Amino acid sequence: MMKGKSKSSKLPKVGQKIYVDTRVSLSGSSEVVGGLATLSKVVVLVEIKENPGHFYNWNKILSKQQELLKNQFGNKVAGFEPEK
Description:
The chain is 19% helix and 21% strand. By secondary structure, it is an alpha+beta fold.
């Protein structure tokens, strides 16, 4: 994640207008054409040093699982399983 804050790195607010690009669903069955859109929800994603380039949904998933995950993993550092 970026360390410095710029105007564009601030989280947008619900109701704010933003521009979006055209997106095709993974199944290829639907397409949303890009243009000006109104934000209905803002979700915060987090990236960890141990798995760069992959993002986790903090608000909906990880924040609610912290106690469970702490009990499951203790102080074990996240990372890839060693190859056998």
